[in-house]
Automatic annotation (TrEMBL):
Record flagged with keyword Transmembrane: yes
InterPro entries the UniProt entry points to: EmrE-like, UPF0060
HAMAP family: UPF0060
Subcellular location: Cell membrane; Endomembrane system
TM regions (residue ranges): 22-39, 51-68, 80-96
Protein name per UniProt: Uncharacterized protein
Highest taxon listed in the record's lineage: Bacteria
GO CC term (a single one): plasma membrane
Membrane topology of the entry: Multi-pass membrane protein
Family named by the database record: Belongs to the UPF0060 family.
Keyword terms of this UniProt record: Cell membrane, Membrane, Transmembrane, Transmembrane helix
Length: 99
């Protein structure tokens, strides 16, 4: 949810500022970004840094998929390799055995 809110909100602001869409796009994007700031606080992990670091890896994957689905920019091999590296990193951070 957080990833979709950040990408969706940022995309609306992008459309407003970079593609000359009406200001309503920017306002809607800004409101969605405020919601994005709230969503991560609902996670069960006790560590702020770990939640945001793990979210960063998931964000990369969502951004590649967003670009493919919404912007119609087909990811290449290196996009997929980078996304895979990120998800491996997220998995290590979240589920590595710790004492």
């Amino acid at each position: 949810m957080a990833g979709l809110a950040e990408i969706g909100g940022g995309y609306l602001v992008w459309l407003w500022l970079r593609e000359s869409k009406p200001i309503g796009y920017g306002v809607a994007g800004g409101l969605i970004l405020v919601v994005y700031g709230i969503i991560p606080t609902l996670q069960q992990f006790p560590s702020f840094g770990r939640v945001y670091a793990a979210y960063g890896g998931v964000f990369v994957i969502l951004a590649v998929l967003w670009g493919w689905a919404v912007d119609r920019k087909t990811p290449d091999l290196y996009d997929w390799i980078g996304a895979l590296v990120c998800i491996i990193g997220v998995s290590i951070m979240l589920w590595a055995p710790r004492s």
